[in-house]
Amino acid sequence: MISDANGAGSPPEPPNITLLRALNVLLRHRRVIILLPLALMAAAVVYKLTRPPEYTSGLTFMPQRSRSASQAFGGLAAQLGIDVRTGSATESPSFYADLIRSRAVLEQVLRTPISRSDEAAAPAVTLQQLYASRARAGTIADYRALDRLRSRLAINTSRTSDLVHVAVTDGSPRVAHAIGAAIIDAINSFNLRSRQSQAREERRFVEARLNEARTELRRAETELARFLARNARFERAPLLMLEHDRLQREVGWRQQVFTSLAESYEQARIDEVRDIPVITVVEPPSVPARRDARGTLRLGLVAGVLGLLLAVPWAFTREFLRASSAVDADDLREFTRLRRETALDLRRPWRVLSSQRVRP
Q1: Could you list the residue range(s) of the whole structural domain that residue 230 is in?
Q2: What burial letters (b/e) apply to 284-293, b meaning 16+ CB within 10 Å?
Q3: 4, 68, 222, 224: most buried, per Cβ within 10 A?
Q4: Domain check: are 42 and 100 in the same one?
Q5: What is the dihedral of CA 20, 24, 25, 29, to 10 degrees?
Q6: Whether the predicted pLDDT of 73 surpasses 70
Q7: Of 283, 312, 347, the domain-final residue
């Protein structure tokens, strides 16, 4: 304790933290502040240099939208920066981005045979065998292969141009190119199966409805024929004229329904066997000639900054602990008393709520 001229104790002065003292702390622990960032930078550089090279093959495609009456308005809105979808949700770029990441497409890509050599006699293996070679056969290996394939895909979509960009990264340039080509084939195969399946179900429904419409049309024509057979001169009777007009309208309406269903039935039959792709490949995948940049300098700088962020607080924390080792005895006694009273208040909270106790 520090005593003044009257003998009364005065509280200790707070530490005077200045720029010079902060610099002294940094210089006192300069070895850690210098060596830790350098060590992390060296570790990052070694990690990047020892990693195998990677190659990226890119592809770009555009889904074909169905023609609609509002397509002109959608094109005008797109020029103004407004995204107006004129087709179904299954024709949007976002749908194809999710489709590529789906298990149905990735499993087909994993089953695609891929040759890792330019030689014609080189054996072809599947991506499933490449990506799950070190795992045991079974479900675990399949999930590992799917996760590894997903991690090698980078998919971006454009809202204004409806383009889907896919980048495939792999340690082999031929494998990266083969994965891109397999993705295009898998998308076309999925579209073909789903479209033909939908057209098949639609054809079955329209066919049943067409048979019903044919029966109803024949019934309406039969009623009109019977009316004409019984009433050869119906023009002279107003009531017969009304009945004739009603039967004639019924036959005409049944003919319109039958014609519309017949057109839908023929269109469904065409769609059921159509094998035209519904995506337009703008940029097909190619074998990359150069490996990807390692990013060694960038990772080294990030590691150095991280080392500084760890070393500087460590230096000040250690300096604070060293300065706090010589604790004043009065402060220690007060801390002990307050700690005991706090523990008692936690055990008996009603004491705090009932009254305010005056501390000496």
Answers
A1: 201-273
A2: ebeebeeeee
A3: 224
A4: no
A5: 150
A6: no
A7: 283
Q: Do 170 and 75 fall within a single domain? A: yes
For the segment 305-352, what is each residue's pLDDT rounded down to a tens digit?
998 999 889 888 887 777 766 556 666 677 778 788 888 877 776 665
Whether the Cβ atoms of residue 185 and residue 285 lie closer than 8 Å to each other: no
Task: Choose the final residue of a domain: 283, 306, 337.
Answer: 283
Beta pairing partners, 58: 167
Q: Is 98 a member of any domain?
A: yes
Spatial distance between the Cα atoms of 117 and 273, rounded to a whole number of angstroms? 37
Q: Is residue 346 domain-resident?
A: no
pLDDT tens profile 87-111: 556 678 888 888 888 888 888 888 8
Count of positions (residues) in the chain: 360
Is 339 part of a structural domain of the chain?
Answer: no
Q: Does residue 168 fall inside a structural domain?
A: yes
Dihedral of CA 225/226/230/234: which sign?
negative
Write down the pLDDT at residue 123.
Answer: 66
Q: What is the full DSSP assignment across 275-338?
A: ---SEEEEE-----SSPPP--HHHHHHHHHHHHHHHHHHHHHHHHHHHHTSS--HHHHHHHHHH
Please give the average per-residue pLDDT across 202-224, as a whole number.
89
Cβ pair 63, 282 in contact under 8 A: no
Instruction: Please indicate, yes or no, whether residues 81 and 189 belong to a single structural domain of this protein.
Output: yes
- Residue 236's CB is within 10 A of a number of other CB atoms, namely 8
Q: How many domains does the chain have?
A: 3
